[in-house]
């Protein structure tokens, strides 16, 4: 086990993975998952209050794309969590017009026992989930009452019948005047998250009801601030004193969702921003770069829980989708963040859980996942495969009918389970209540008038070929890939009629620089071109810090790429292997390099001369990343005393590494280099290959955006700084040969 693979509390470790084993659909912490009951069948049309019983569909009116969310302002939009007033206006219009599929979603709602005027809440002073060896679990009472409050709130907003508003208010007031705490074991964190964001959503709908007094709203807001939020916040900053990657993604996600929802409900911008910042930059597995663990070609984003079971895997989509929607309704686009990374994860999870033909599921690519607890998942888990959660209407309608993008597998899943039900439609256990549901009714939008042009095109060069990925157009039947040798064109078509997947590999290329665009073939003609992506197949110097400056705090970059280094915390100059060198004191000094310095590189070479003053385990020659979850690094001495290169998307336990069989000398200059070429990584000391790994599936671009790119400093705060000198630091786009490495010396 790595020196970092420790858990502060064994008791916490044992409890954190244990949930309600009886769940029909696995909830956030369940240690087992079984397939959820089938979604609700299409219900015979039932007349809503004031709505004639008919299933005639109103002709859809195509709508233009919404390219951005509402403008951000200091004041929150209300209602502004999962649904805005415009959404409710649309629902009412469609239901009153008996339009499909909205009317079928309405019928599922009004026949659900939670959406009934006879429903009676059962508020509790303390809610328990998990075994504290004293109290019985009673959290099903809470999730049933929340399902009722939400269902009744929807009935009021859509039908205008205030009897349902009064029922929702009765439920909300009963709990805000009674609930004082959440207990049990660590599974109480799931109650605070799952039921926290759902409760806030029900209240957000009701805040516009004139008969809900300001005092009662304030009482409810106070309950959310004092009972739910402190648990949410504490979980994200402490993770119950475990190593940050110990908990699966859905633990983070439900607590993020709760913080965001409470922030809007309570008009607390700092709370809202806390959730947004964690989504983008959080250290735990719920942050989008960890939740969508690995990006395969064609933007299939392997979800962090894919190798665990499909109940938890689909829960991730059911939680991240609402986070993105709540943010969108407040003017923040998390859907599109990091080139639609959430869509990549949703498409992967949807495809993995859909039948292609007969009883055979679609196949999806998979890379091994390891975590802090010694989990070694080498294949997609078939446990619960085909799992149904009412989560897909939201995903499909945002990306396709708002944005005009293609989301073929989310679309198939949304159609398969339409109309989506809510709590109570998917069995009696907690897994059926992990999401509010009713997406067919609440999220369905009119078809977009035309699809967007292909977008998000990226080009990754490796082993003399270029792997292209792009986002498709809503109505496209195929795509054409075009290549040029001059920026801006002209371009020549190199592939026509590309369908699924949205990727193409351009092979047999000579060393050079190539420019690509993609167009889509649609019913209305060929779209405009995508963004242009550049691929460099030649070995090219990316960064060259000779460290011959001799004074000042800037190390010039002689590559011409503008990647100058900044000497930090007293880093000085000393005599180098060639000319001068940077001198690092081993206590706090290092050299900082620009952000994203290797963000678009696959094959790579990094080389330097180093002079090591002292024998320090885990001191870094370099470390590029965003913290202890995402990094690539070279250390002069690992735990066994030998140089090691490693790269990870999941902390120390997920490292792919290359270990030297030769120790680094102390008190003399030594040349070190690392090359990555496809799946082959090689570590060199003084021109000799001292370690190789032929199964490297990670490359620098998989790290995404990196803001902490350092020479002489580790991502881990407890690791020592480098004590010695560094000279002739070079980064090449492309892998140098052994002979070329020797020539650098």
Main traits of this protein?
single chain; 745 residues; alpha+beta; eight-stranded antiparallel β-sheet; 28% helix; disordered N terminus
Short description:
This protein has 745 residues and is an alpha+beta fold.
Number of H- or I-type helical stretches: 16
Structural class: alpha+beta
Radius of gyration: 28 Å
Oligomer: single chain
CA(first)-CA(last) distance:
36 Å
Overall strand count: 32
Main sheet: strands, sense, barrel: 8 strands, antiparallel
Task: Describe the 3D structure.
There is one protein chain. With 745 residues, the chain is α+β, with helices and mostly antiparallel strands. Helices cover 28% and strands 22% of the residues. The chain contains 16 helices and 32 strands. A hairpin with a 2-residue loop joins β5 (355-357) and β6. α8 runs parallel beside α11 and α12 packs across α14. The longest helix has 25 residues, at 214-238. The model is unreliable at 1-61 (pLDDT under 50).
Topology diagram in text:
Layout: H1 10-16, H2 85-96, H3 102-110, E1 126-129, H4 139-159, H5 162-176, E2 181-184, H6 188-206, H7 214-238, H8 249-265, H9 269-281, H10 288-291, E3 292-296, E4 300-303, H11 310-328, H12 337-352, E5 355-357, E6 360-361, E7 369-370, E8 376-377, H13 392-402, H14 408-416, H15 439-443, E9 455-462, E10 465-471, E11 478-484, E12 492-498, E13 503-506, E14 513-522, E15 525-526, E16 533-536, E17 540-545, E18 554-555, E19 565-568, E20 572-575, E21 580-585, E22 590-593, E23 604-612, E24 620-625, E25 631-635, E26 644-648, E27 656-659, E28 669-677, E29 680-685, E30 688-693, E31 708-711, E32 723-733, H16 738-744
Parallel strand pairs: 1-2
Antiparallel strand pairs: 3-4, 5-6, 7-8, 9-10, 10-13, 11-12, 11-14, 14-15, 14-16, 17-32, 18-19, 19-22, 20-21, 21-32, 22-31, 23-28, 23-32, 24-25, 24-31, 25-26, 26-27, 28-29, 29-30
Helix pairs in contact: 2-4, 4-5, 4-6, 5-6, 5-7, 6-7, 6-8, 7-8, 8-9, 8-11, 11-12, 11-13, 12-14, 13-14
């Amino acid at each position: 086990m790595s020196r970092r693979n420790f858990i502060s509390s064994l008791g916490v470790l044992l409890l954190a993975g244990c949930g309600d084993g009886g769940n029909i659909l696995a909830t956030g912490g369940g240690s087992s998952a079984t397939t959820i009951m089938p979604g609700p069948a299409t219900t015979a049309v039932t007349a809503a209050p004031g709505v004639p019983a008919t299933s005639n569909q109103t002709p859809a009116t195509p709508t233009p794309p919404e390219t951005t969310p509402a403008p951000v302002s200091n004041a929150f939009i209300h209602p502004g969590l999962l649904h805005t007033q415009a959404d409710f206006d649309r629902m009412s219009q469609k239901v009153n017009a008996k339009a499909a599929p909205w009317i079928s979603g309405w019928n599922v709602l009004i026949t659900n026992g939670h959406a009934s005027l006879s429903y009676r809440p059962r508020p509790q002073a303390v809610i328990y989930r998990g075994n504290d060896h004293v109290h019985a679990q009673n959290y099903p009472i809470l999730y049933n009452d929340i399902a009722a409050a939400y269902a009744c709130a929807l009935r009021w907003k859509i039908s205008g019948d205030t009897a349902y508003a009064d029922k929702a208010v009765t439920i909300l007031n009963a709990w805000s005047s009674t609930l004082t705490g959440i207990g049990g074991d660590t599974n109480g964190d799931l109650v605070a998250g799952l039921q926290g964001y759902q409760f806030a959503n029900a209240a957000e709908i009701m805040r516009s009801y004139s008969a809900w007094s300001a005092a009662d709203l304030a009482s409810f807001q106070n309950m959310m601030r004092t009972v739910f939020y402190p648990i949410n916040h504490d979980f994200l900053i402490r993770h119950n004193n475990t190593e940050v990657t110990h908990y699966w993604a859905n633990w983070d996600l439900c607590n993020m969702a709760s913080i965001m929802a409470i922030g809007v409900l309570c008009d607390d911008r700092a709370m809202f921003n806390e959730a947004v910042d964690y989504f983008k930059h959080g250290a735990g597995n719920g942050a989008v770069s960890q939740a969508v663990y690995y990006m395969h070609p064609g933007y299939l984003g392997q979800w962090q829980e894919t190798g665990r079971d499909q109940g938890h895997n689909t829960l991730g989509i059911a939680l991240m989708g609402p986070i993105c929607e709540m943010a969108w309704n407040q003017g923040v686009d998390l859907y599109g963040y990091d080139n639609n990374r959430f869509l990549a994860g949703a498409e992967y999870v949807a495809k993995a859980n859909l039948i292609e033909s007969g009883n055979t599921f679609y196949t999806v690519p998979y890379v091994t996942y390891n975590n802090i607890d010694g989990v070694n998942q080498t294949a997609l888990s078939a446990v619960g495969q085909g799992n149904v959660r009412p989560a897909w209407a939201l995903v499909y309608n945002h990306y396709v009918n708002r944005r005009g993008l293609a989301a073929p597998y989310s679309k198939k899943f949304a159609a398969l389970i339409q109309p989506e039900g809510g709590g109570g439609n998917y069995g009696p256990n907690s897994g059926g209540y992990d999401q509010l549901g009713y997406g067919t009714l609440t999220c369905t939008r009119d078809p977009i008038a035309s699809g967007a042009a292909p977008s998000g095109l990226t080009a990754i060069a490796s082993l003399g070929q270029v792997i292209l990925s792009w986002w498709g157009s809503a109505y496209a039947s195929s795509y054409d890939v075009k290549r040029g040798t001059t920026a801006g064109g002209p371009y020549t078509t190199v592939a026509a009629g590309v369908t699924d997947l949205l990727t193409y590999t351009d092979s047999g290329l000579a060393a050079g620089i190539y420019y690509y665009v993609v167009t889509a073939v649609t019913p209305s003609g060929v779209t405009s071109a995508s963004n242009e992506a550049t691929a460099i197949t030649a070995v090219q110097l990316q960064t060259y810090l000779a460290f011959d400056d001799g004074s000042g705090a800037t190390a010039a970059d002689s590559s011409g790429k503008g990647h100058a280094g900044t000497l930090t915390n007293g880093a000085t100059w000393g005599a180098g292997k060639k000319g001068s060198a940077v001198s690092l004191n081993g206590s706090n000094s290092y050299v900082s390099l620009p952000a994203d310095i290797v963000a678009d590189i696959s094959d790579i070479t990094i080389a330097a001369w180093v002079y090591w003053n002292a024998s320090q385990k885990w001191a870094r020659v370099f470390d590029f990343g965003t913290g202890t979850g995402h990094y690539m690094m070279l250390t002069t001495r690992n735990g066994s005393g030998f140089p090691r290169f490693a790269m990870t998307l999941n902390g120390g336990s997920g490292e792919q590494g290359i270990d030297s069989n030769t120790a680094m000398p102390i008190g003399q200059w030594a040349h070190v280099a690392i090359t990555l070429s496809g799946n082959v990584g090689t570590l060199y000391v003084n021109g000799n290959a001292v370690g190789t790994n032929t199964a490297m599936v990670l490359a620098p671009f998989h790290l995404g955006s990196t803001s902490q790119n350092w020479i002489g400093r580790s991502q881990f705060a407890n690791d020592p700084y480098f004590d010695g000198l560094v000279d002739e630091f070079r980064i090449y786009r492309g892998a140098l040969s052994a002979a070329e490495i020797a020539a650098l010396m």
